[in-house]
Specification:
single chain; about 450 residues; alpha+beta; Beta-Lactamase; Heat Shock Protein 90; 3 domains; five-stranded antiparallel beta sheet; five-stranded mixed beta sheet; about 55% helix; elongated
Length: about 450
């Protein structure tokens, strides 16, 4: 609307000037000095008014652009006085100034956030001009790691610590390298990487320096804790059924001593002792294997009867499961089925799976665990552990084999992960199917039978 009004006023001024010039021509033609003088005066005023009408806008625009050039956005134009088109122009200027102020404020806020974030990170960060050596950015972590005070030019480091200067500023570290920095006479390992970037015509270099001594020590400590957790978990899993079986056998022997007329079943006694012996040997073998993780691929493979494997597991686990009221059922389709495995490690896998099923069967009516073995496609043997426990929630079933993932308050999260690793060593697979509230089935698939 203001633009249309501006054009209308401009058009009227041009018409008035045209009429004045037309009157002047008429006066000259008559000739009539009164018409000539009056039309000439009118033409001069019209030209002057037209000039001021046009030039005023350009002067204001030029003045505004000059302020923009010098980044002066503090000026405020009066929107409430003057012609309508000028007020609209002033309003536009003010909106531009306001928008630029908001953008600058946001940039300052973002810069402040970035500054605070860079100050909080543990990594040392420095950015400097490659041609002049002037420091663009330097955080406290860099000064602490490099053991230097604040400086404005990298030549400061060159004069006081030439070896450090050469290692950090002169050597190229594109992919990240480990260097040794001497801080107060102590060698400290640091990870360093650098990158060159351009701002306009100037080139800058960004260097990131991180002290990894503390990280390495912390990682090593965590690794030891996790290793101890794994060893404790597996040892306890084996000792618990051994202890339960030994307690059962001890009870039978006491009853035989107190009541000589009651004869003890020597076969049961011998089978129980044999189970304790084999599991103890298996535990020692497991500890030896775990101690030599770099040689864990050298499995002690042998032809193992699945029936004998099941019998050992039954003798070992039956007493503790009977005490908890949980049925342990073994199904073997082919009594002659044999597989090429490391018997001690596969026993450890089955013990872990059974103990997980025991926990899942707590507060379940008629709890039972079924261990079965059969041959699938192309004679591939499969050992299956099935329970009617509470099952595994669908949202976590993909993570149960992740090392140290657990939903148990006292769990270590390494049982199932270790089972998977042992099966991978046998070039086999672990498959799990579970329905929450109904139970879980885990298949141990081996490559082939013996």
């Amino acid at each position: 609307m203001a633009y249309k009004r501006y054009k209308l006023i401009l058009f009227l001024r041009v018409i008035i000037l045209f009429l004045c010039l037309l009157a002047l021509a008429f006066g000259v033609n008559r000739p009539d000095k009164y018409i000539i003088v009056s039309s000439l005066i009118g033409a001069v005023f019209s030209v002057h008014g037209l000039y001021k009408h046009i030039i005023r806008r350009f002067l204001e625009i030029d003045d505004f652009f000059e302020a923009v050039k010098y980044r002066d956005f503090s000026r405020w134009f009066n929107e409430k006085s003057g012609p309508e088109d000028m007020r609209r122009l002033y309003k536009g200027f003010n909106e531009v100034n306001k928008t630029i102020k908001e953008i600058n404020s946001e940039k300052e806020t973002q810069h402040l956030y970035l500054q605070k974030i860079l100050e909080m990170v543990d990594a040392g960060i420095i950015a400097y001009n490659l041609s002049t050596g002037n420091v663009l950015w330097l955080n406290e972590a860099f000064k602490e790691i490099a053991d230097t005070p604040a400086f404005k030019r990298i030549s400061f480091v060159e004069k006081r610590k030439p070896s450090l200067y050469n290692e950090i500023f002169e050597t190229v570290h594109h992919n990240g390298d480990t260097i040794n920095i001497n801080i107060e006479g102590n060698a400290v390992k640091a990870l360093i990487s650098s990158s060159v970037f351009a701002i306009g015509e100037e080139k800058y270099k960004l260097i990131v320096l991180q002290n990894i001594d503390d990280t390495l020590n912390k990682t090593e400590s965590e690794a030891w804790k996790k290793l101890l957790s794994v060893m404790t978990h597996e040892i306890m899993n084996s000792i618990a059924p051994i202890s339960s079986l030994a307690e059962t056998l001890q009870s039978h022997i006491k009853q035989s001593v107190l009541h000589p007329e009651q004869t003890i079943d020597m076969e049961d006694l011998e089978a129980g002792i044999e189970s304790i012996k084999k599991r103890s040997e298996g535990l020692l073998m497991f500890a030896k294997t775990y101690r030599s993780l770099n040689k864990v691929t050298n499995l002690n493979l042998s032809k193992v009867s699945v029936g004998e494997l099941f019998e050992n597991i039954k003798n070992l686990m039956q007493p503790s499961l009977d005490a908890k009221g949980i049925k342990l059922i073994f199904n073997l389709e082919d009594p002659d089925l044999c597989i090429q495995i490391d018997a001690y490690l596969i026993e450890q896998v089955l013990i872990n799976l059974i103990l997980n099923s025991v926990e899942a069967c707590e507060a379940v009516n008629d709890p039972h665990i079924i261990i079965s073995a059969n041959k699938k496609v192309k004679g591939t043997p499969v050992i299956t552990v099935t329970d009617n426990g509470k099952g595994i929630p669908e949202e976590i079933i993909d993570r149960i084999f992740v090392p140290f993932f657990t939903t148990k308050k006292s769990g270590s999260g390494i049982g199932l992960s270790l089972c998977k690793q042992i099966m991978l060593l046998h070039k086999g697979r672990v498959q799990i199917k579970s329905i929450e509230g109904e139970g879980t089935m885990i298949n141990l698939k081996f490559m082939s039978e013996y």
